[in-house]
Model the fold of this input.
Amino acid sequence: ESIQSPSTGTDSGQTYRGPFSIMTVLFFMWGFMTVFNDILIPRFKEAFTLDYFHAMLVQLAFFGAYFVGSLLYFVISAATGDPIARIGYKNGIVLGLLISATGSVLFWPAATAISYPLFLLALFVVGLGFAMLQIAANPYVTILGPEWTASSRLNLAQGFNSVGTTIGPLIGGYLIFQYFARSGAHGTDSVKVPYLAFGVVFIILAAIFFLDRKSTRLNSSHLGI
Done:
């Protein structure tokens, strides 16, 4: 009696190293960018002469978006059905990346206008994108290969997230407080280039992910097409 290899969701024996590699980069960026909040708080506190209450609105705007995004997703799911079931994990990830990119790019006009409310709005948009990524990315990683290795893939991806969380403050602190902190410029100027770079990376990841043929086939299989 022959032994059949575990199915990966579409084609037996099919590997998805390309899409999974993109996902590890995404998880790394996810963790890397999340810890930037801790760097923004002292920078904004100094630049806008804020008390601690108003400075901590940075955390409220970002993580509050997780709650709002999850609540909106629940309401939509209850009213019209699960959106991921209609668009697929891949398209959900692409949508989350584009939302996060939009929020990142908003840092540029916020810094140009020296507007703290606009910075908070930008962080809120980034948080909404991350909420969408959290909904779609974790289950997507589990189907990028055999079912029996799903937990290992998810643990590896989460490991890259932890690496990003660990080195984020080191690199971010250097960039924002030293490299891009020009003498005589307003303190908010130091965040323009890093967050614009984040936006560009998210757009590139979304484009690569959207055009990847293997992830397209897997998305079609998930939707039952």
Notes: Residues 150-179 form the longest helix (30 residues). The chain has ten helices and no strands.
